[in-house]
Design brief:
By secondary structure, the chain is mainly α. Helix 5 runs antiparallel to helix 7. It has 15 helices and no strands. Helix content is 72%, strand content 0%.
């Protein structure tokens, strides 16, 4: 086995430590904030605000707490919150598929929007396209599921049971420690598996599969590497590589715009998909349907944006992090 294809145990260990620290720095404060907000009754306010939108997606009102938590933090924290809500224990597969798809489109929005901004997209546009795609896909799927009865069977949730019968502060602290420990195990397994996938050539397979899709969307070949990095590693994992490639100025700004739209909607295909599978959604929905919506929304964004004069690109769509030479 060559050095390039060897299983790099040291790299895996470093990645596990780095990812765990980054996640827990966000998750632990977020869990505390959610707990305080719940004690102050903010969850009831949140439910009342989001209830109309939840109804459009055929979701119980309490799902709003999970979706907003995921949006502000990450899927791991969202799953912890979902595990603590008894209202979400009797969902069907259609509903968990919509929740999982929404989480995949909007998770970690503040952090990932900032990463996208560092690469070259305007913050407001990143937030807009991801939220718009999440709500449109959820409403369309809810309508299809209601009309056809598809995925109406009960979902098989694999979340840890962390709801205490007497939810004292000690009970809550104990349950959160247990849940965080379980998530740490998931992180270890996922990162170890990702390194194995790299060795057996899954990245090359992804390149082969994505190339015709990128060409269909009108994204040039020079941007293909950025797409592969984003889809396989995610925005936070691959952010440094994305910034380096774009900073060379060799990739046209319209290709940068298109590929960043795409990977904001379809990134971290292995890890995030595996995580939300704990909700018991349809794998077809969160893989194939997510890809379909990502392609369609990216093409629509590119079609509209390409009709704008150059002066509007720097003001509304891209920023100074894309070199002026990237015409």
């Amino acid at each position: 086995m060559t050095a390039r294809n060897a299983y790099d145990t040291r790299k895996v260990g470093c990645d596990i430590v780095s990812v765990s620290l980054n996640l827990f720095r966000v998750m632990i404060p977020a869990l505390i904030i959610v707990k305080i907000a719940t004690e102050l009754g903010f969850d009831s306010f949140l439910i009342s605000v989001f209830q109309p939108l939840m109804a459009l997606m055929d979701l119980p009102p309490a799902a709003a707490i999970v979706l907003v938590t995921t949006m502000l933090t990450n899927p791991y924290t969202g799953l912890l919150v979902a595990a603590s809500l008894p209202e979400l224990t009797d969902l069907n597969t259609a509903q968990t598929s919509i929740i999982a798809l929404f989480m995949l489109f909007t998770h970690g929005l503040p952090v990932e929007a900032m990463v996208s901004s560092k690469v070259g997209l305007r913050l407001w546009f990143v937030v807009m396209i991801r939220l718009l795609t999440a709500f449109i896909s959820g409403i369309i799927l809810a309508t299809i599921f209601a009309q056809t009865g598809w995925l109406s069977s009960p979902a098989h949730l694999s979340l840890p049971q962390i709801t205490a019968t007497d939810p004292s502060l000690i009970d809550w602290l104990t349950s959160q420690v247990i849940a965080l420990f379980l998530i740490q195990l998931v992180i270890i397994i996922l990162i170890a598996a990702l390194e194995l996938l790299r060795i057996i050539g899954v990245e090359r397979l992804m390149t082969w599969l994505l190339s015709p899709i990128l060409q269909f969307m009108g994204i040039g070949a020079r941007a293909s590497t950025i797409a592969i990095v984003g889809v396989c590693l995610g925005l936070t994992f691959g952010g440094g590589i994305l910034m380096k490639d774009v900073a060379t100025g060799t990739i046209p700004k319209r290709d940068v715009f298109g590929v960043l739209c795409f990977i904001n909607l379809k990134h971290s295909a292995f890890e995030d998909t595996a995580v939300v599978m704990l909700l018991g959604p349809s794998l077809f929905v969160i893989v194939v349907v997510r890809l379909l919506f990502a392609v369609v929304m990216t093409m629509l964004a590119m079609l509209i944006a390409h009709r704008l004069p150059d002066a509007l690109w720097g003001r509304y769509l891209t920023n100074k992090n894309i070199p002026a030479s990237a015409g």
